[in-house]
Amino acid sequence: DAKTTQPPSMDCAEGRAANLPCNHSTISGNEYVYWYRQIHSQGPQYIIHGLKNNETNEMASLIITEDRKSSTLILPHATLRDTAVYYCIVRVAGKLVFGAGTILRVKS
Amino acid sequence: NAGVTQTPKFRILKIGQSMTLQCTQDMNHNYMYWYRQDPGMGLKLIYYSVGAGITDKGEVPNGYNVSRSTTEDFPLRLELAAPSQTSVYFCASSQTGNTEKLFFGSGTQLSVL
């Protein structure tokens, strides 16, 4: 169902930048890319979204390639509390469809 | 700030029993959603509602029913519980259907034995 592809897991050292990739090669021109994360079976938490331009907020940065077929979520200074499952999402039939995501483990 | 509140947090059902999972939000959001999450998997949309009195099916609606009589409440009903419905259930809300920002509840862990 998911229209995105993410690596199943990644490790990152505490204090370093975590770069989480996502492929969405079938994305249409007016579809946004959304990122959510889920910490330890809590409800997912919105992080950021974007269409064409790079976006930044207090949580993360989102870099979208010019052809919009892939994007990267950047956590600039990862902490242990950023250990979570990160979902890259585009809409399917108008609704957000969550794939399996990437398990990010931040290690001290 | 209460946000999205789900009850109960945990429940064990016997096969064939019925129950209602409660969800309420205090943000005056028009859109509400029910998702289920099986172990190690992503979330699957069960039902959603675009406003009071309007509901529609998601990806996996079989075995469930919903109603939306008020803006605040969106209960999910299981009529004849089956082991395949063992899962964690999340309710979410958003201001509009095109919004990027869903607010999720803390989930209900349901086991059907």
| Termini gap of chain B | 35 Å
Strand content of chain A: over 45%
Q: Describe the biggest sheet of chain A?
A: 5 strands, mixed
Number of helices of chain B: 0
* Low-pLDDT runs of chain A: none
Sheet with most strands of chain B: 7 strands, mixed
> What is the 3D form of chain A?
globular
Radius of gyration of chain A: 13 Å
Percentage of residues in helical conformation of chain A:
under 10%
Q: Identify the most extensive interface between protein chains.
A: A-B, 21 and 23 residues
Detailed description of the structure:
The complex is a heterodimer of chains A (108) and B (113). Chain A contains no helices and 11 strands. In chain A, a hairpin with a 2-residue loop joins strand 9 and strand 10. Chain A is globular, with a radius of gyration of 13 Å. The N and C termini of chain A lie far apart (35 Å). Chain A has strands spanning 9-13, 18-23, 33-38, 45-50, 55-56, 61-64, 70-75, 84-89, 91-92, 95-96, 102-107. In chain A, the strands form 3 sheets. A 5-stranded mixed β-sheet of chain A has the order 1-11-8-3-4, with no helix packed on it. A 4-stranded antiparallel β-sheet of chain A has the order 2-7-6-5, with no helix packed on it. Chain A has a two-stranded antiparallel ribbon with strand order 9-10. Chain B is mainly β and 113 residues long. Chain B contains no helices and 11 strands. Chain B has strands at 4-7, 10-13, 19-25, 31-37, 43-51, 54-57, 64-66, 76-78, 87-94, 103-104, 108-112. In chain B, the strands form 2 sheets. In chain B, strands 2, 4, 5, 6, 9, 10 and 11 form a 7-stranded mixed β-sheet that branches. Chain B has a 4-stranded antiparallel β-sheet with strand order 1-3-8-7, with no helix packed on it. In chain B, a hairpin with a 2-residue loop joins strand 5 and strand 6 (54-57). The mean pLDDT of chain B is 93. The A-B interface holds A 1-2, 32, 34, 36, 41-46, 49, 87, 94-101 and B 4, 35, 40-45, 48, 58-59, 88, 90, 92, 97, 100-107.
